[in-house]
Amino acid sequence: MKTLQDYIDKLNALNFKEMYNGDFFLTWEKSDDEIEAVFTVADALRFMRENNISTKVFESGLGISLFRDNSTRTRFSFASACNLLGLEVQDLDEGKSQVAHGETVRETANMISFMADVIGIRDDMYIGKGNAYMHEVVDAVTQGNKDGILEQKPTLVNLQCDIDHPTQAMADMLHIIHEFGGVENLKGKKLAMTWAYSPSYGKPLSVPQGIIGLMTRFGMDVVLAHPEGYEVFEEVEEVAKKNAEKSGGSFTKTNSMAEAFKDADIVYPKSWAPFAAMEKRTELYGNGDTDGIKALEKELLAQNAEHKDWACTEELMATTKDGKALYMHCLPADITGVSCKEGEVDASVFDRYRDPLYKEASFKPYIIAAMIFLAKFADPADILKKLEENGTPRVFK
After folding, report:
1. Could you tell me which of 145, 120, 76, 67 has the C-alpha nearest to residue 362?
2. Does residue 2 surpass a pLDDT of 70?
3. Are 4-164+365-390 and 166-361 equal in CATH topology?
4. What is the pLDDT of residues 118-156, one digit of tens each?
5. What single-letter DSSP state applies at residue 114?
6. Distance between CA atoms of residues 282 and 29, nearest Å
7. Is 92:65 a contact under the CB 8 Å cutoff?
8. Is 345 helix (H, G, I), strand (E, B) or coil?
9. Residues 6 or more apart from 212 whose CB is under 8 A from it?
10. Which residues, 6+ apart, have CB-to-CB distance to 153 below 8 Å?
11. Which neighbouring-strand residues pair with 388?
């Protein structure tokens, strides 16, 4: 059984000093040691909470959240992460703020950050916009801190952009590590990241891109499968290829869901919109072309409907490794006969994997908390040790 000291010792063996006072935009911008540090701190924080040790490292301060798209799991994961560390969450509703009246990004970022230690942003709807907006916010608060307007520079955590969904991919990866008994057991495992049919259109590409951009770092054989026309960012595919070469794994693509599922150890069937269509959508919204948007939506729904056979069925699951591949999804899934007539996954498959799916989601609050922790403290291992020595219970008994 592990102790907190095991996590502290592991952390001390890693080089992650560049994370201090930093931000978390994309997983592939982080070194292997930095990724490992996030996993280690996440596990340490979870260990402490499960053992009734307080992880409160802030006596006051704000965690600001800005969601430009709908969210349940990530919204509550961010709030949980902030609360775990002692921060209070304030959600920025742009419709109820002066942003709606033309307030600049620079002004908004500074005005909300006087006592903020972290800003979490989801901005995933428009290609070329979300990640750029996050950088604009960071530039604004960095300058505000340099100019003496802000006492501290709040760290930014990407809660999903147009390119990557790092908190999701990291939570998924930590779930895999635990399911397979350690990262050392992942080499040679086959992971299928596949498109799946959805009766809706316009789902972001950042989840499949996040998965191939991260999972290829661990020596696994990662397969990206989708019908023709559902390509993802070429730049992220290049990242995946380089990661696979470095880690001793592989990254391949196929237009066959059956090929991807065959002998897979892990399957991740999820719908997403074609990159080219999302680019066009962004342009149409920018031009205020409502008729063009409606026409594109109709076109994409028809295109999706041509691929209803791309679904995670019992028959496909039977072709995976021993018929028992780990089924994963970022949730909510489009469940055939439950949430829609025809969707991404059979109800029987989803029901069988419900517990592992919920466990998968449970890692996200700790991943986000770890990202904040590593950005706010120069010596995180020492802080963990002090928390243990203080021995303050989370719940008094």
Report:
1. 76
2. yes
3. yes
4. 999 999 999 999 999 999 999 999 999 999 999 999 999
5. T
6. 25
7. yes
8. strand
9. 193, 222, 224, 232, 236, 237, 239, 240, 251
10. 21, 141, 142, 144, 145
11. none
CATH topology classification for 166-361: Rossmann fold (3.40.50)
Measured distance CA(267)–CA(282) in Å, rounded:
30
Query: For 329-368, what is each residue's pLDDT tens digit?
Result: 999 999 999 999 999 999 999 999 999 999 999 999 999 9
CATH topology of domain 4-164+365-390: Rossmann fold (3.40.50)
Query: Could you please report the per-residue DSSP string of 213-278?
Result: HHHGGGT-EEEEE--TT----HHHHHHHHHHHHHHT-EEEEES-HHHHHTT-SEEEE-----HHHH
Which ranges of 262-353 would DSSP assign to H, the alpha helix?
275-286, 290-305, 314-317, 347-352
Gap between the Cα atoms of 214 and 177, Å rounded: 13
Q: What are phi and psi of 266, to 5 degrees?
A: -140, 135
Domain residue extents for the chain:
4-164+365-390, 166-361
Per-residue pLDDT, 93: 87
Averaged confidence pLDDT in the chain: 96
Quick one: average pLDDT of 222-240? 98
